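To fix ideas, we now present one chain and its tokenised fold:
***
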Amino acid sequence: MRAIFIFALFGVLCGLGAHVLHYNLKKGALYSEVFFGGGDVASYSPFEVYAPDASLPFVRGNTDERGVLTFLPDRVGKWHVVVHAGSDHGEHIIEYDVDVKEGDIATLSHTPLYSEYGAMITGVAIIFGVFGLVYGLRARRAR
């Protein structure tokens, strides 16, 4: 029984890190508002952003409800943006370049320590609690 407990604990410790989602809040993303001539926003319009001298998109997505698209450039240069906005008159395409300078480059940092290991510690505590409850009930029945 002790071997099963050790094996289960090892398996949980190895697998818990894969089930933790992390996040970072950052400032400094580049964003663009896309709208039609009458002021109507291009909500949920598909877009692609191309890095300098790249043929494949750096990011693909849809504008949000307010017609805003956002991306985090990782190098300087001219970034190319293509937006496909639909309206009552069919599809409209706009293409434009964004000149990213040295201060506009996004850098990502690591998550806080608790955010990284908090769920793992909680999971181990739950497992110890369950096994403690099982052993306690077995010891009570043995009396």
The mean pLDDT is 78. The two ends are 19 Å apart (CA to CA).
